[in-house]
Automatic annotation (TrEMBL):
The organism's taxonomic lineage, starting at the top: Bacteria, Pseudomonadati, Pseudomonadota, Gammaproteobacteria, Pseudomonadales
Gene3D superfamilies, per the entry: Rhodanese-like domain, Winged helix-like DNA-binding domain superfamily/Winged helix DNA-binding domain
Entries under NCBIfam families matching the protein: HTH_metalloreg
InterPro entries: ArsR-like_HTH, HTH_ArsR_DNA-bd_dom, Metal_resp_trans_reg, Rhodanese-like_dom, Rhodanese-like_dom_sf, Thiosulphate_STrfase_CS, WH-like_DNA-bd_sf, WH_DNA-bd_sf
Origin: domain of life: Bacteria
Domain (Rhodanese): residue spans on this chain: 130-219
Domain HTH arsR-type as annotated: residue spans: 6-100
Record-given protein name: Metalloregulator ArsR/SmtB family transcription factor
Protein source organism: Marinobacter xestospongiae
Keywords for this protein: DNA-binding, Transcription, Transcription regulation
Length: 227
């Protein structure tokens, strides 16, 4: 008869998982892998690590079941493992932010006025996309966008936003999204666009959560302009 794991062994497993996640490089790697399947060389570059260092951290994540691999010729590609990994990462971020009072700090700061925090969820966005009355803006990197993005989104990485404002139609609101609910890029995009007189709001969730919900996504290079 198969023996069920004891409460103590489950606690130990949880502790082992927490120990695996207890390194900023591994959390950074998981965030990049959540955007789409990538090779170790790409992950190393995105995370600012050497290939050897990135590979070592990825092996820890793989042993814990947090990532999986497949071979593509000579390359080994990494993707998220099975299970509720995205909610786990989101919960870690949320708790960390709560502890540091980041949300309260942003609300109190004169730059981050409460109205700039306006956001919509996936259901509301789907309705507005169906009505055709918004411009969907992906402010992640072009590499992230190419791996997968929301249907119809244009890609203007946040650092290029000031130089490419003319690519955004001025006759309808802009909905910005980025890597996840606690990624500040979409938040800062809304502030920047509103400062220039454009109507803008952000998607509460990011691309990984949209994809995890089973909603339609697209892949391929960025659309340069809608104007």
């Amino acid at each position: 008869m198969t023996r069920l794991p004891s409460a103590q062994s489950l606690v130990q497993d949880s502790a082992d998982l927490a120990r695996t996640l207890g390194h900023p490089h591994r959390l950074s790697l998981l965030e990049h892998i959540a955007q789409g399947e990538r090779a170790v060389e790409s992950l190393a570059q995105l995370s600012g690590l050497s290939v050897a260092n990135a590979s070592q951290h990825l092996q820890h994540l793989k042993r814990a079941g947090l990532v999986q691999t497949r071979r593509d010729g000579k390359r080994v590609l990494y993707r998220l493992g099975d299970g509720p990994i995205l909610p786990l990462l989101a919960a870690l971020r949320e708790f960390s932010e709560q502890q540091r009072h980041r949300v309260q700090t942003m609300v109190d700061d004169s730059v981050y006025q409460p109205d700039t925090l306006e956001a919509i969820d996936c259901d509301a966005l789907l309705q507005r996309l169906q009505d055709g009355d918004v411009t969907l803006l992906d402010v992640r990197t072009e590499a992230d966008y190419t791996l997968g993005h929301l249907p119809g989104a244009i890609n203007i990485p946040f650092e290029e936003l000031a130089q490419r404002l003319a690519e955004l139609p001025a006759d309808r609101p802009v909905v910005a999204y980025c890597r996840g609910p606690h990624c500040l890029l979409s938040h800062d995009t809304v502030i920047a666009l509103r400062a220039r007189g454009l109507e803008a709001l952000r998607l509460i969730n990011g691309y990984p959560q949209w994809q995890a919900a089973g909603l339609a996504v697209e892949t391929g290079p960025a659309v340069q302009s809608l104007t």
